[in-house]
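Structural prep section.
Before we set up the soaks we want a predicted structure of the protein with 6-O-phosphono-beta-D-fructofuranose in place, mainly to decide which crystallisation condition to try first. Input record follows.
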Amino acid sequence: MMTKIAVLTSGGDAPGMNAAVRAVVRRGISSGFKVCGIKRGYAGLFNGNQFVEMEMGSVADIIHRGGTVLLTARAPEMYQSEFQDKAAQRLTEEGIEGLVVIGGEGSFKGAMTLEQRGIKTICVPGTIDNDISGTEQTIGFDTAVNTILWAINRLRDTATSHERIFILEVMGRNNGFLALAAGLAGGAESILVPEIEYNIDEICDRLIRGIKRKKAHSIIVVAEGAGDIYDINREICERLDTEVRVTVLGHIQRGGSPSAVDRLLGSRMGSMAVELLAEGRSGLFIATRGQEVVPVPLTACFTEARPFPEDLYRLALTLAR
Ligand code: F6P
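Run finished without errors. Recording the tokens verbatim:
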């Protein structure tokens, strides 16, 4: 019978991670486990003593807070087998038999290596990018989309007043899930994502059509991985001979109080992770299927990239006239 479990958050923080940490701790203690928090993600396994014994009160007053109280880090060491061995050994020394990893795909890969070394491991998807294959939604995505919408609404006010075109860069180094969701919900005229090659002539044609029918403004949402936003800006300015303003939203979109959706997801997923450990299960991550949260083999998310919803992309273009 397992007695001690641990939880860590890893990679880019995401709003709702705290709800998941709270759920792991409280469900864990209620189930009779000792629960330990590991600070600074996997990096906490290599640098001094980053283990904190958690009590019910350790996670009080955090459900509404963005970021992660456990702190987080990117730990490239975890791609090397020597460090994977060290990490597993460190957990074993601390008497930790079960681990909950809250993070994105890179963090899941690290978890897999620990699972292969005998640590029972369950993952919870926490990333604003929503790019994990096998789950429809990740913790943090909903809040980030709403933060981008908040920005689009404000840009719209000033864009309309000055009859200007705005380009807004949002996060998404390798994918455009955030850009698409926020662009569609925000009524953006064009959405540029790494998955679909863009054509600057087409973008300009759309803008010209808008100007001709006296459209007060246009907003172009660009995922950071789609191209250099300043090059795109220059090309549009030259072709249209008009004013275009650029806004880079940056890390603002990663912070903030989590939405109800992300708090619910964090609470449900964190709790399920502990239930699975209590059943002696391992090598799984928690995914959403419609309204349900379900366990899925960890390997499922590595086999192929999450498919980009091209139908939604086409819908966004059709609606933004
Ligand atoms: O966590 C994923 C992500 O938000 C990406 O969308 C973005 O490209 C990256 O993190 C930024 O990372 P950092 O905080 O290390 O600059």
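Observations: The mean pLDDT is 96.
Flagged for discussion at group meeting.
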